[in-house]
Amino acid sequence: MSQAQVKAAAQEVAVKKEAPLPAQFNLEEMAGQGQEFVTARDTRLPILKILYANSPVLDESDGKYIEGAKQGDIYNEITGNLYKGKDGLIVVPCLYINTFNEWRDRGDSPGRPVGIHTDPSVMSRTKRGDDGKDRLENGNYVEDTGNHFVYILDSNYTPVETALIAMKSTQKKKSKTWNSMIQSRRLKGKKGFFTPPAWATAYRLKTTKESNSQNSWYGWIVEFDRTLDDPKFASTLEATKGFYESAMKSDIFGKVDFGKEESVSNNTGKSENVPF
Fold first, then answer.
1. CA nearest 262: which of 205, 203, 215, 221?
2. What is the SS3 assignment for 274?
3. Residue 143: its pLDDT value, please?
4. Cα 253 from Cα 41, distance rounded (Å)
5. CA distance 160 to 84
6. Percentage helix, strand, coil for the chain under 3-state DSSP, each rounded to 5
7. pLDDT digit string (tens) for 114-146?
8. What is the pLDDT of residue 270?
9. How far apart (Å, rounded) are the C-alpha atoms in residues 149 and 255?
10. Distance (Å, rounded) from C-alpha 58 to C-alpha 264?
């Protein structure tokens, strides 16, 4: 076979495409079949968590151990995806809800809030305990929590997975700053400048080590990445807008996988809840 024939054969192989599925198997038109009766409570929405020394992911003897994972990395317990805290990840904030989550103390807690309050007046019924927590008469404590429901994107801005980022305690100020960043964004339209929907903006989240006089922990860094106003992001916008609409219509907290509360050790050797 001549060199020209070899080149032509290679080109033919390169352009050859696999045959499509038969017409009766149009998967796009059949999207969602088999899931007609699945509701929000039948699925689980993970919370993105920052890893600490006591995280199972860092314990070599634990089944959840991930080689190379470090404190400060960001982990999705349901999918097992790990994001390096130094590099961060790109997220689209699709919906924000401020709640006042009522918890029982560690050891007595069912692993999720015993009450999720949306009326801030619940704080007026609390008193600051000796441990610094805002406690109700029943002994439970309430945490002012900023809930950011996000869509995680890869480096090409392709949708990867949905999750919740809950910011409380020391991180609540960062939640407020993030909301201010979202509201301050401006695009120019036919009628002048406007604030684009949150689900059309992307941010990079990283982690950094923080401390006070008693302990240290890793907290969030929120940086604006870009507005998804380019036509090439149409499919991404379809996904992020869809998540926003779904969250607005459903009992979104009913599907949140709160998991277990983690703790950090302070300088006295005592264990305390992670401060966010």
1. 215
2. coil
3. 95
4. 9
5. 16
6. 25, 35, 40
7. 999 989 999 999 999 999 899 999 999 999 999
8. 41
9. 12
10. 14
